């Protein structure tokens, strides 16, 4: 097993100091507020379909909210969660596109062809056009539907855009990450473009406005111009707190005592986002929506630890199938909840929001076949048992196969070199390469990157391709039971085989040079039509941008981190 140098910490010292023995049920961190858990305060009667506000944050770590014991200030989120229902057995996907696709379709990514990686800006790919989306179902039920924020579900054709997939209005970015002020996004050296759109047009005039504020202001404007007598659905997909780490200076100043610069900027972004949620909540009350509203808050994946995020005490990070990558922050706040002010341990997955919200809206699900989600509103509102008993985290046949996996290790029924993960009841199985696998306390996030970088890589080279955990008894994934319980391993492998038989082919096409922003006036946007194939002959020089080209800060940052990575790797022992 390859072991890398630690600066000031070792895994043994972490264990000896008790860092990895945090009480999962510690009241100050995840328990209910001081209220009788059996309290049943009856909500107002559902006289009409509720207004639905779905707030999705980007790369916010499991630890990075006040009620999980964080050093980051999130008073609004803490209050909304305390007055509603905290979801402490809530799962998402480990990266952006998969979580968003499962939210908007109610289907596992193996059933949409998006089981590998994310949708890249230059790929001729998007959410399959045959999928009936959540906002489309809500439109059928009479809702006015609006999206504000990050799309990241493809845009190579106009048919892929949010306004063609069920939203009446859209203000936001189409790609995965942009500058918070300039809205530049670089998909490699020299491939940079502007990415902020109003409907299907480029919103050049909004450049310079901090996206978190811009998006919250747009939500307020939508509420002010709509009638609370008519149901409304607003999907607020904040760019925050994804890189680049940018925040107004006054928020950074609050965390000036934090030694780690990345953590300081990240914390400022979280608090800024918290205040944006406060403004949205205030607008709901000001314009008469609140009493008949349901607010859902969710993260899209685990935090990125080398960009300031923390998933402590969970194992792993964004991009992995350890709990730190897939267990999310989630809560529901609504006057319509029957049993408020409590923590729910009901098993909930991001696919469940589709049938849950359509049912709340009194929409019709009878003509929607093949959903992987469940209606979990009775579990959330009334404390009933969740109808969900298992979660397919994913099966990715294209991800790098584990060096030591084999069909033999999978009892002849599953190749354990394939990256896959599933939870059934209290058991969780991982095969292949689940990703960086160590526990990273916030205390190790110092100004010296080597300490936390090397800690993450402690278990690199471990000759394994199968892990089994009792996730209820061992939520931190410390005790691998795969050798002690081969019977459970075999049972869960059979479930993977079952799901794999239902999977459709992976949609991950090669990048198309026609997508270059210089062919679109300097902005990212659709480049193909119904008559276009995915092959492009080229033969033209890129058109000059209509606007003066801006310097791409993201490209410079990526170059910096590549150099840093090379330097760190050269210092291994």
UniProtKB/TrEMBL annotation:
Stored Gene3D superfamilies: 3.30.1120.10, Alkaline Phosphatase, subunit A
Q: Where is this region: Disordered?
A: 519-544
Q: Which InterPro entries match?
A: Alkaline_phosphatase_core_sf, ARSB, Sulfatase_CS, Sulfatase_N
List keywords of the entry alphabetically.
Answer: Calcium, Glycoprotein, Hydrolase, Metal-binding
Cofactor names from the entry are: Ca(2+)
Keyword presence, Phosphoprotein: no
User: What range(s) does the Sulfatase N-terminal domain occupy?
Assistant: 50-361
The record's GO molecular-function terms, alphabetically, read:
metal ion binding; sulfuric ester hydrolase activity
UniProt family annotation: Belongs to the sulfatase family.
Protein name per the record: ARSI Arylsulfatase
Gene that encodes the chain:
Arsi
């Amino acid at each position: 097993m390859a072991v890398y140098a630690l600066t000031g910490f070792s895994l043994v010292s972490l264990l000896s100091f008790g860092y990895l023995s945090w009480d999962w049920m510690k009241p100050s961190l995840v328990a209910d507020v001081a209220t009788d858990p059996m309290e049943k305060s009856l909500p107002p009667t559902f006289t009409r379909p509720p207004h639905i506000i779905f707030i999705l944050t980007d790369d916010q770590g499991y630890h990075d909210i006040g009620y999980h014991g964080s050093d980051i200030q999130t008073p609004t989120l803490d209050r909304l969660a305390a007055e509603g229902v905290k979801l402490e057995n809530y799962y998402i996907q480990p990266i952006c596109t998969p979580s968003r696709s499962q939210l908007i379709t109610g289907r596992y990514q193996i059933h949409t062809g998006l089981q590998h990686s994310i949708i890249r800006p230059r790929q001729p790919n998007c959410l399959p056009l045959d999928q009936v989306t959540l906002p489309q179902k809500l439109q059928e039920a009479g809702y006015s539907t609006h999206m504000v924020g990050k799309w990241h579900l493809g845009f190579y054709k106009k048919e892929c855009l949010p306004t063609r997939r069920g939203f009446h209005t859209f203000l936001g970015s189409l790609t995965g990450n942009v500058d918070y002020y300039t809205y530049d996004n670089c998909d490699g050296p020299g491939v940079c473009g502007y990415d902020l759109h109003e409907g299907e047009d480029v919103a050049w005039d909004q450049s310079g406005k901090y996206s978190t504020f811009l998006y919250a202001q747009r939500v307020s404007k939508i509420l002010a111009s709509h009638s609370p007598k008519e149901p409304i659905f607003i999907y607020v997909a904040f760019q925050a707190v994804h890189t680049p780490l940018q925040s107004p200076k006054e928020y950074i100043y609050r965390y000036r005592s934090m030694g780690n610069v990345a953590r300081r900027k990240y914390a400022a972004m979280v608090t800024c986002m918290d205040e944006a949620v406060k403004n949205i909540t205030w607008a709901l009350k000001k314009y008469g929506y609140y009493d008949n509203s349901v607010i859902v808050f969710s993260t899209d994946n685990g935090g990125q630890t080398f960009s300031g995020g923390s998933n402590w005490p969970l194992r792993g990070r964004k991009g992995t199938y350890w709990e730190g990558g897939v267990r999310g922050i989630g809560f529901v706040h609504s006057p319509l909840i029957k049993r408020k002010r409590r923590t729910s341990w009901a098993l909930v997955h991001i696919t469940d929001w589709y049938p849950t919200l359509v049912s709340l809206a009194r929409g019709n699900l009878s003509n929607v076949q093949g959903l992987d989600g469940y209606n979990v509103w009775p579990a959330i509102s009334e404390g009933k048992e969740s109808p969900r008993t298992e979660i397919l985290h994913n099966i990715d046949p294209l991800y790098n196969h584990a060096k030591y996996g084999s069909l033999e290790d999978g009892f002849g029924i599953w190749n354990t070199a394939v990256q896959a993960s599933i939870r059934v009841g209290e058991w969780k199985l991982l095969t292949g390469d689940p990703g960086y696998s160590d526990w990273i306390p916030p205390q190790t996030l110092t100004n010296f990157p080597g300490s936390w970088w090397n800690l993450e890589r402690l278990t690199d080279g471990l000759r394994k391709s199968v892990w089994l955990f009792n996730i209820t008894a061992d939520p931190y994934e410390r005790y691998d039971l795969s050798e002690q319980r081969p019977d459970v391993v075999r049972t869960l492998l059979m479930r993977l085989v079952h799901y794999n038989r239902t999977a459709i082919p992976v949609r991950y096409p090669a990048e198309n040079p026609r997508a270059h922003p210089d062919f679109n006036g300097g902005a990212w946007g659709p480049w193909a039509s119904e008559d276009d194939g995915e092959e492009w002959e080229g033969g033209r020089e890129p058109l000059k941008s209509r606007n003066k080209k801006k310097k791409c800060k993201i490209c410079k940052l990526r170059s910096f981190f590549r150099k840093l990575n090379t330097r760190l790797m050269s210092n291994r022992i």
